[in-house]
């Protein structure tokens, strides 16, 4: 038990004791009115004062008649007695301003005694206090009963005996003291038995603390991980926080994995032969599915403010259902990965949503009053955020689905004034049921949430406008609602124009929602690439196991998901590299994972350019269509009914464009990935300047260094470095060609490449598109020229020193996708320019894909080249490719 609990219980005992003390003082054994003596004495003194005043006046009149003056010894004596009585009256104290009704006093005392003898019995109070202190069963329920009974008693005292306040107030005060005392004891018991969440304290504190309670539910795990993301933006904090952040991600994955495994087991049990399966699943037709999508995009909200309108509780039901690891949690994990290791940081959104959900589940009973002080900064920030929400929106919200409070407040202002006007008219014509029905509709609209979408309030205002027409048909100038109709009409027109401006974001919303539904792949990749890598036996075996999953991840993608999936792989590559640096024991497998991801991403980037270009072209066409449609639908009509009809017609046209965009997003990328030859379009044949060669400048060591080495115990070639360097320079001069000769060789190779390209293009251009009797001789001649050109090329390659034979082990490796994916990136520090390294990596990725295309092209090749020559030519390519791989790795 904490010190705070002891203080609360001590305060409770104190107030209960004070209550019992007050009741002991003020509640008598018999019904006695303590004010009755004062009232009677007051009445006697008032009577004596009246008599003495009359006697003084009579004495003064007699003295005036006898002596001509009112003063005499007789008048002085009467005045003295009058002053004595007045002084006696002042000593009585304040008088009671009520009458002494014996019957009411008897009723009051009976009720007080019945309550004090029952509810305030000292034995019962002591038992209740003891049960609250010991935490016995039903203690809190008994305390709630006492609070209810005593509250009813206080209410009766204040409402039925207000004229006897001097008698009832002390008793009421004592009862209130007792109520407060027992509430303190109950509060101490609640704090002792309730499980307070450290997450709430960390979230509400200032500055916000890192949440360490990550062993609870999924929401707490998400909050725990999201609270660490802001600390990853600086290098120093990142090194300290990153291990904890990865651990939080691992906890989230473990929870997801266990839940999915349990769901699979439940599904298998449901499919058992011994269970009856429900087959009442409704399959919608294409037309029904299209109509469902249309209603989800453009909800009508018809009859939203009607009296018989039923509130759609599906949203609330979804919130009540424990979805466990639902789509929102999966999306949160994906955004945490991209925020920590990618380029898109939406962790703040994840954190804020999780905080809001946690606070909606907030149980204040488990926390003491110190939380009010701890959360003061959070309260101020929340109020400031709430004020911003009421005044402006950061972005243009979705007109049909997103809240837009500033616009809704415009409607609320009109509704408040029209309600006041109708109430005034009803005070004059209360029998007018039309006005009453309009008022009921206005109140129902006003009761809608301020965070409702504009489209919902728009539909409600349109219904109100129709309803007010029923009144205007019989109204006159004095009781007309025409001015409010004009305001509502103007607001509806402005909202319809706002609807037009919101159409441009519909495609963005669709793309964002489409990509978010793909986020569960991130958890699967985390399990394969990170979580599963720790338990891998060897890095090579693990790469061989994981690579098919990555290929499936990319090949099963669509146009809309391909680029986001590449971003996700980049994030995992960065994650693997950082884990490798943090955990030396996991460094080999993590380095292998990072290298594999680097190569997979490099290959996929070759196709991403075409995919993004195709999707961008289709998006541009649709954007232009929507822009043109907005121009055509620039509603200038002031007739709200015509505007509504035009809007419904426009929604149908928009839905067609959205469906086309969704079809473009859902187009599979597998045909493009299978078209291996399309990644490398033939560049125009033009000579290029060979890059400058970097020659190593060898300088012999100084004499001092040579002397120092001579004194050390080193091999002879390291001691006599001057002789060693002299011989090395001689070798370079005799066995390695000069820089000018190497540049000449590069120029010759470039010339050969240009000649090959030009020859191919000339033969392609000369070849007819179709074979006829007229051009048969020309085609045969061209075929001979092609075979001759190809044969000459093979001879030139052989004369240049190239080989068409590759060692079997080398050939096996360069055909092995796992081995190629494990090739490390080409890095030479600052020796070679980064742009040059980028080009080298680009060529390496292209070669890897083009080699596959070349091998696949052998079967079913063109008859212009015989298979033997083609095989020899492919041998030259395989040999050069093997040489480039060995040089690159060396």
Describe this structure in words.
With 890 residues, this protein is an all-alpha fold. It is built from 36 helices and no strands. Helix 31 packs antiparallel against helix 32. The two termini are 69 Å apart. 20% of the residues are buried.
Sum up the structure in keywords:
mainly alpha; elongated
Offer a concise description of the structure:
With 890 residues, this protein is an all-alpha fold. 72% of the residues lie in helices and 0% in strands.
Fraction of helical residues: over 70%
- Average the pLDDT over all residues and give the rounded result: 81
> Low-confidence segments, ≥5 residues, pLDDT <50?
313-323
- Count of helical regions: 36
Beta-strand proportion = under 5%
What structural category characterises the helix and strand content?
Answer: mainly alpha
The description of the largest β-sheet is: none
Principal-axis shape equals elongated
- DSSP summary, beta strand count: 0
Radius of gyration: 46 Å
């Amino acid at each position: 038990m904490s010190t705070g609990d002891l203080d609360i219980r001590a305060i409770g005992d104190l107030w209960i004791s004070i209550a019992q003390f007050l009741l002991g003082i003020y509640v008598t054994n018999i019904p006695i009115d303590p004010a009755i003596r004062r009232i009677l004495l007051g009445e006697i003194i008032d009577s004596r004062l009246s008599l003495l005043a009359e006697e003084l006046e009579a004495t003064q009149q007699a003295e005036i008649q006898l002596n001509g003056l009112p003063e005499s010894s007789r008048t002085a004596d009467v005045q003295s007695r009058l002053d004595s009585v007045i002084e006696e009256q002042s000593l009585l104290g304040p008088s009671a301003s009520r009458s002494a009704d014996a019957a009411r006093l008897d009723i009051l005392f009976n009720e007080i005694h019945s309550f004090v003898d029952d509810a305030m019995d000292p034995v019962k109070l002591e038992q209740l206090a003891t049960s609250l202190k010991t935490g016995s069963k039903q203690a809190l329920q008994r305390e709630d009963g006492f609070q209810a009974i005593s509250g009813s008693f206080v209410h009766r005292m204040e409402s039925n005996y207000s004229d006897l306040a001097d008698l009832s107030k002390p008793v009421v005060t004592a009862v209130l003291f007792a109520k407060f005392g027992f509430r303190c004891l109950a509060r101490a018991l609640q704090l002792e038995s309730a499980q307070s969440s450290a997450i709430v304290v960390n979230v509400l504190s200032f500055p916000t603390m890192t949440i360490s309670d990550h062993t609870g539910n999924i929401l707490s795990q998400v909050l725990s991980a999201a609270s660490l993301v802001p600390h990853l933006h600086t290098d120093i904090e990142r090194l300290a926080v990153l291990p904890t952040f990865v651990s939080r991600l691992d906890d989230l994955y473990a929870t997801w994995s266990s839940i999915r495994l349990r769901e699979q087991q439940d599904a298998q049990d449901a499919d058992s032969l011994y269970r009856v399966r429900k087959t009442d699943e409704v399959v919608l037709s294409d037309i029904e599915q299209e109509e469902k999508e249309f209603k989800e995009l453009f909800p009508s909200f018809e009859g939203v403010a009607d009296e018989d309108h039923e509130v759609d509780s599906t949203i609330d039901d979804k919130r009540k259902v424990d979805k466990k690891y639902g789509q929102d949690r999966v999306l949160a994990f994906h955004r945490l990965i991209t925020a920590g290791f990618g380029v898109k940081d939406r962790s703040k959104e994840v954190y804020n949503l999780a905080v809001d959900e946690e606070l909606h589940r907030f149980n204040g009973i488990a926390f003491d009053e110190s939380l009010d002080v701890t959360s003061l900064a959070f309260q101020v920030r929340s109020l400031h955020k709430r004020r911003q929400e009421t005044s402006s929106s950061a972005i243009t919200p979705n007109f049909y689905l997103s809240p837009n409070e500033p616009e809704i407040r415009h409607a609320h202002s009109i509704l408040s004034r029209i309600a006041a006007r109708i109430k005034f008219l009803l005070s004059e014509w209360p029998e007018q049921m039309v006005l009453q029905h309009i008022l009921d509709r206005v109140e129902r609209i006003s009761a809608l949430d301020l965070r409702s979408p504009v489209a919902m309030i728009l539909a409600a205002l349109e219904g109100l406008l129709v309803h007010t027409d029923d009144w205007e048909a019989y109204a006159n100038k004095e009781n007309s609602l025409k001015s409010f109709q004009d305001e509502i009409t103007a607001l509806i027109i402005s909202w319809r124009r706002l609807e037009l401006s919101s159409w441009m974001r519909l495609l963005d919303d669709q793309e964002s929602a489409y990509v978010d539904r793909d986020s569960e792949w991130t958890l699967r990749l985390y399990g394969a690439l990170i979580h599963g890598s720790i338990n891998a036996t060897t890095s090579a075996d693990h790469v061989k196991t994981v690579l098919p999953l990555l290929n499936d991840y990319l090949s099963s993608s669509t146009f809309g998901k391909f680029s986001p999936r590449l971003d996700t792989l980049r994030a995992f590559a960065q994650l693997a590299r950082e884990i490798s640096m943090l955990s030396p024991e996991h460094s080999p497998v993590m380095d292998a994972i990072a290298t594999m991801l680097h190569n997979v991403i490099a290959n996929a980037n070759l196709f991403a350019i075409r995919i993004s270009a195709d999707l961008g072209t289709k998006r541009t066409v649709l954007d232009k269509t929507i822009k043109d449609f907005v121009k055509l639908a620039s509603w200038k009509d002031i007739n709200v009914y015509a505007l509504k009809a035009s809007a419904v017609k426009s929604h149908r046209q928009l839905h067609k464009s959205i469906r086309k965009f969704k079809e473009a997003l859902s187009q599979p990328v597998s045909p493009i990935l299978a078209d291996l030859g399309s990644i490398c379009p033939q560049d125009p044949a033009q000579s290029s300047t060979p890059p400058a060669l970097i020659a190593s400048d060898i300088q012999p060591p100084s004499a001092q260094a040579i002397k120092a080495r001579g004194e050390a115990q080193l091999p002879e070639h390291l001691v006599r470095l001057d002789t060693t360097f002299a011989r090395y320079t001689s070798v370079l001069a005799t066995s390695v060609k000069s820089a000018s000769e190497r540049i000449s060789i590069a120029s010759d190779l470039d010339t050969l490449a240009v000649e090959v390209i030009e020859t191919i293009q000339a033969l392609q251009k000369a070849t007819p598109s179709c074979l006829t009797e007229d051009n048969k001789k020309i085609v045969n001649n061209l075929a001979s020229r092609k075979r001759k050109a190809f044969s000459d090329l093979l001879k030139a390659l052989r004369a240049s020193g190239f080989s068409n034979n590759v060692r079997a082990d080398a050939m096996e490796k360069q055909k092995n996708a796992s081995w190629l994916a494990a090739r490390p990136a080409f890095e030479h520090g600052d020796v070679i320019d980064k742009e040059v390294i980028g080009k080298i990596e680009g060529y390496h990725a292209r070669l890897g894909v083009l080699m596959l295309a070349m091998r696949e092209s052998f079967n079913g090749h063109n008859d212009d080249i015989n298979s033997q020559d083609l095989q020899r030519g492919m041998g030259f390519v395989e040999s050069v490719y093997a040489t480039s791989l060995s040089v690159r790795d060396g």
